[in-house]
Protein 1
Amino acid sequence: MKSYGFLGAGHMNQAIIKALLETQTLQPQQIWVSNRSPGKLDRLVEQTGVHKVSQNEELLGACEIIVLGLKPQDLSQAIEPISSSFEPQHVVVSLAAGVSLASLKKLIPNVTQFVRVMPNAAVSIRHSVVGCAVAGEAPWLKSLTQQLFSPLGQVIFVEEGEPFEALTVACSSGVGFVYELMEYWQDWLLDHDFSPAEARQMTVETFLGAALLAVDKSRTSLEELQNKVVSKKGETAAGLDSIRECEIERLLRISFEKAVMRDRELGQLD
Ligand SMILES: NC(=O)c1ccc[n+]([C@@H]2O[C@H](COP(=O)([O-])OP(=O)(O)OC[C@H]3O[C@@H](n4cnc5c(N)ncnc54)[C@H](OP(=O)(O)O)[C@@H]3O)[C@@H](O)[C@H]2O)c1
């Protein structure tokens, strides 16, 4: 039975730990967790029964798989003091946004097995897209990654570089972008005398309904689904013509590119 060490007890690592326990993928006794400040770690231990360690280094002695649930700006500070204690058999899984597999290898030279992961905020309801880039071709490393992250949603293996950046922006930052669009819908309804509660509910149901229809008709392209709700010269067609004239797609692509540039900046370790 392998043991899993979670360095950091923040949002992501907590969501992963809870999903792994709720799906009985892992048992509490297989999980060790450390965190910089004690409060949230103590609460997690109380809620789940996982092991707590007070020093990050203790995770390395206890566990084969180490999950780094850290912000990129905290990564070097957390890892450099313990880097030489990693051993070749460790597998390192990193959630640090923007930090490449090559940078991880530079930070932890003793290890050869790395996985870089990009989830999104929907991990807590297990509907995340989970992008994973794996160093090397070892099939067991991919199976381990699949086992660890499929309880959180849809695991997508992707090459590093542009595909990983595109997934990060579309699927992780993308949740924030979709909320921005939802706010536009909500504001329109508020401007037309719906109460805040009604405007929120109507917006959420519209986005949810569109997404669930696409799930239900998984063999139908999004374009065909859209065509089904557009009648020639109707009001939807008029609105869509205007959206296209305003080149909303071009504007959104500029925003996506800006987010990619920021992702690259964040990944530069000191
Ligand atoms: N949240 C999301 O929706 C999301 C989505 C996609 C990707 N990500 C990525 O996932 C990573 C983690 O994000 P998060 O939202 O989980 O961040 P978070 O909630 O801030 O968690 C980070 C945790 O790391 C702990 N930490 C920092 N330095 C440490 C050290 N030296 N030793 C031990 N623990 C240390 C922090 O402890 P303290 O309690 O002292 O602060 C904190 O609990 C980030 O790289 C983020 O970009 C997050």
Protein 2
Amino acid sequence: MLKVEFYGGKGGVGKTTLSSARAYYYTKLGKKTLLVSTDPAHSISDVLGVQVGSKIKSITPLLDAIEIDPEEEANLYIDQIRRDMNAILSPVVLEDVNKQLRAAKVMPGTHEASLFDKMIELMDRYKDVYEVMIFDTAPTGHTLRLLTLPELLIEWFAGLIKKREKIVKLKAMLGLKEEDPILTRLKMRHAIFLKAKDIIQSENTSIHLVMNPEKMPLEETKKAMRFLSEAHQPVTEIIINKILPPNIVDPFFKNRIEKEQEVISEVKAIYKDLKITEIYMIDQDMDADSLIKIIDLL
Ligand SMILES: Nc1ncnc2c1ncn2[C@@H]1O[C@H](COP(=O)(O)OP(=O)(O)OP(=O)(O)O)[C@@H](O)[C@H]1O
Ligand SMILES: [Mg+2]
């Protein structure tokens, strides 16, 4: 059964570093793993030291990686809608629709919608190929919000399907019996959301929040935790990253180390039931070599 892990958190906290490290960690356990980046900044290439693109690339015998480009996916998505519309609309109306579609490419939400579809497609299509899929998300937090979409939209689509079916029935009564592309599309969307809900709410899917040991990020983490738990998408692990090593004796750092430890204690006290993982700041930027040090801490 495919295990799926999402890594979220604010900008720069270490999502890419830790999701890559976890992916390696699973390969060390002998599990065939796919690391997926949904971040347009494409930083898994930097961490892995290998150029990854929008096609699945083999990194090691057990590790593959892919970078989803939300822009590219959005274009494919809009093109698909255009093809559907072509089939059902007159050329005059179509010109207007095309204008709207061009605007939709840059509309908020289009990237997210196409990103969501691509993620579901990967999970569904390769569920028998990989044992683990790790998603490194973009800092905006939109990706984690996307996970709560199916629950919200399944009923809405079911309602739209019912309405459309009534129209199709009426048309049939008038002797206009033909395949209805809109109904087909709606049913497809509904099916995708049902599948997505199944995968996302499965016991084998988990959310991992990354934070740094500071007061402000703790507040952000609390907010994210609340949102996700209200959306029935509970977090299973909080990773506190870039903790100053306690053996620094310089007085400048002493106060900082104390403050950090206070935050860590607070996280542990508030989230007693969660797995809390502590990762120390290492003495260099992340590359394939320094990543090994992190993997050992996981
Ligand atoms: N434990 C660590 N020790 C030292 N440096 C670290 C550690 N974790 C991450 N870094 C460094 O912090 C920077 C940000 O890390 P990373 O890119 O993984 O964060 P991110 O959350 O993915 O960022 P973004 O939000 O921009 O996607 C990088 O330069 C990385 O090398
Ligand atoms: Mg990143």
